[in-house]
């Protein structure tokens, strides 16, 4: 493992290894620049199944099915996708099904693209309104430990948990 | 749009026939009438009923099918529920789960809200959409004979398969299975995995 002090270190390396360690078998995602390196890593890993979605709520339902079948999964989404998930999250709350999600933020730190701001600013309130526990992290070095803590809360305490990665970590993400 | 034919099949009889020899099938039902149909023909611990999460039945089935590749997984849902999550057909087609079958009990109505017409009442062709997504098998069933031919496809043909069964919109008695979420989750997992 590359030292965190190394210039080549990226949080996605440790998070990918963590996914392997805790037995993540299904990865559901809609592509996003802030998560691109993690998505590339899990796609290349034959021990887990990557599923590209047409819309993020599909991933919430997929995670419910995975848990019913005895597998752990993770939903990777940009903050814009959180808005698509709200009704489907009722499944997780009502059935007490674990959900681990990584949300890369847009519309906050240093955003230059105005159309990202409304959903970005609504992301955490919307998650909390849907009774998803939010762990916000704004330093790359703290991402792996935050995901590890969130995974315990999700899979051992049967809760829906989102690790929200600040735009300060992910960067501005281009024009879209 | 597909040619329209006369609809005669009774949904409760269709579901009874579909689940009569279910073996170790794992069943996910979409909210509303498909859930009641499944309960009416026989509640089962291998049934997971959705009472909400409209549009999520197919993807719940996908997650389950990927987790249990040696078990047949059937998603049985309504036309309205399928339409809400229709993009999921593209997601399933890309994954090509050989153990997943999708069956639409298509009465061309939103049954829970007052029997308003869905898009399929106006010719929207769900099997054509599934075929367009990449399903190799995507059929519409109108008659008892077609149903008899479709049942083995749903139970054993390599998936993913998609079959839309046109049924009349005549009202049926409501048979309500358990609707407490943790109860449904626990009994399904306990029966399948031996743990909650």
DSSP summary, beta strand count of chain A: 6
Number of domains of chain B: 1
Uncertain spans of chain A, ≥5 residues at pLDDT below 50? none
Q: Over all CA atoms, what is the radius of gyration of chain A?
A: 15 Å
The biggest beta sheet of chain A is recorded as: 6 strands, parallel
Describe it for me?
The complex is a heterodimer of chains A (176) and B (196). Chain A has 8 helices and 6 strands, in the order αβαβαβααβαβαβα. Chain A has 176 residues and is α/β, with parallel strands linked by helices. Chain A has a single domain (11-107, 114-170), classed as 3-Layer(aba) Sandwich (Rossmann fold). In chain A, strands 2-1-3-4-6-5 form a 6-stranded parallel sheet, sandwiched between helices. In chain A, helix 1 (11-21) packs parallel to helix 7 (143-156), helix 3 crosses helix 4 (79-85) and helix 4 packs across helix 6 (117-129). Chain B has one domain: Thiamin diphosphate (ThDP)-binding fold, Pyr/PP domains (Rossmann fold). Chain B contains 8 helices and 8 strands; from the N terminus they run H-E-H-E-H-E-H-H-E-E-E-H-E-H-E-H. In chain B, helix 7 links the parallel strand 7 and strand 8.
């Amino acid at each position: 493992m590359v030292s965190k002090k190394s210039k080549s270190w990226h949080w996605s390396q440790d998070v990918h290894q963590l996914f392997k360690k805790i037995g993540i078998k299904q990865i559901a995602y809609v592509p996003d620049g802030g998560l691109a390196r993690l998505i590339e890593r899990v796609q290349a890993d034959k021990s887990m199944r990557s599923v590209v979605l047409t819309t993020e709520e599909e991933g919430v339902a997929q995670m419910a099915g995975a848990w019913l079948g005895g597998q752990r999964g993770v939903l990777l989404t940009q903050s814009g996708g959180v808005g698509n998930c709200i009704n489907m999250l009722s499944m997780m709350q009502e059935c007490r099904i674990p959900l681990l999600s990584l949300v890369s933020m847009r519309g906050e730190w240093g955003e230059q693209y105005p159309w990202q701001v409304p959903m970005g600013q609504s992301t955490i309130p919307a998650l909390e309104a849907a009774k998803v526990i939010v762990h916000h992290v704004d330093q790359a070095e703290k991402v792996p430990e935050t995901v590890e803590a969130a995974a315990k809360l999700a899979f051992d305490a049967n809760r829906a948990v989102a690790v929200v990665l600040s735009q300060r970590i992910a960067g501005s993400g281009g024009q879209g | 749009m597909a040619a329209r034919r006369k609809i005669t099949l009774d949904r409760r009889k269709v579901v009874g026939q579909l689940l009569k020899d279910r073996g170790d099938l794992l069943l996910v039902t979409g909210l509303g009438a498909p859930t009641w149909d499944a309960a009416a023909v026989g509640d089962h611990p291998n049934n997971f009923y959705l009472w909400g999460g409209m549009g999520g039945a197919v993807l719940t089935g996908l997650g389950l099918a990927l987790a249990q590749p040696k078990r047949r997984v059937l998603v049985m849902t309504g036309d309205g529920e399928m339409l809400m999550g229709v993009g999921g057909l593209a997601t399933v087609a890309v994954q090509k789960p050989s153990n997943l079958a999708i069956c639409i009990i298509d009465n061309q109505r939103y049954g829970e809200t007052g029997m308003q017409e869905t898009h399929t009442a106006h010719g929207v062709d769900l099997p054509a959409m599934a075929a367009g997504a990449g399903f190799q098998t995507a059929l519409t069933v109108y008659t008892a004979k077609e149903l008899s031919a479709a049942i083995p496809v749903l139970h054993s043909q390599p998936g993913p398969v998609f079959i839309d069964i046109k049924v009349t919109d005549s009202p049926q008695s409501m048979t309500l299975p358990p609707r407490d979420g943790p109860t449904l989750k626990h009994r399904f997992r306990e029966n399948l995995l031996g743990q909650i």
